[in-house]
Amino acid sequence: MREVAIVSAGMTPFGELWQHSLKDLFVEAALEALRRAEADTVDAVYVGNMSGGQFVGQEHLGPLLADHLGLRGVPITRVESACASGGVALRSAFLEVASGMSDLVLAAGVEKMNDGGDVTNVLATAADQEAEVYHGITFPGLYAMIARAHMATHGTTLEDLAAVSVKNHRHGALNPKAQFRQEVTLEQVMASSLVADPLRLLHCSPVSDGAAAVLLCPLERASEFTDRPVEIRASGRVAGQIESVEQLSGGGQHPAGQIGRPGPLHRQLIPGEAEHPGQVDHLDTLTGGEPLHHRFRRAGKIGIDRLHLGQRPLEGIVLHSLDKPTGALHKPSIRSEHLTRHQQW
Fold it and tell me: Could you say which of 17, 25, 69, 83 is catalytic?
């Protein structure tokens, strides 16, 4: 397997982008990535998209987006893995370059959520329709139950949840392309409207339109496109349990009960860490998206916990990065009582 680097990136603003179609968003992000690398074509493209069919009535995205971008004779594949769709596109591009099949591959993620789809119902298609959705569960309700289970098991508090939102808004305030560019206080998060107890409005991610793209090539060729390549040191992907109601009721192991147990993804990303915890100084790139993705703030804490970067689970105080961030806009630092090493992504 070859060493792989990201040599360019492009991103649209995120928000309620009524004047831009799904195709427009993809092309804007893709062209920015290509222009920065001064590349006029690629060997292959992977596009992550969860639900273009339901949000905007558009399936068969590969050929459509290739045509809109002006690519001819280039394979373009749409991948779907719910909220991890963009991450899976990146991993797919990484594997194609690492294997030697292609030298220059574009990975992108795009979603258009504000054009009329019933967002709650569309997102619920990522849950188990028979075991969960049929009985009325929604993702806010599901994550609220997981939050309560985690609080009961590990002593996490409402203030801990709110602190994650404070951190995320602080970094968003520095990002010119973020949907919401203002900081919030712990008190504002705690006083925001209740969505599903204990989750409040400012614990939840917004509905958004936007796209992002990165260009990958072999590390040995990276200098042709940039003097600041980002090497992908590791990439891992595993399937998680989806029947969360069963997990919460005792029929399986819900996320709150698995914290601190290094799993298959952990071992893929950090070989040997299970036997020698504490040896990893930082993670430069995490592909696959899902471990550190969180549509609700509870999921962010659980994702960090399950990567098992500390000597023991992050119990109680978690992700309290309340110091002013420094450095690059997209590289937030995370610190807590039990997470003593510095990580970036």
Answer: 83
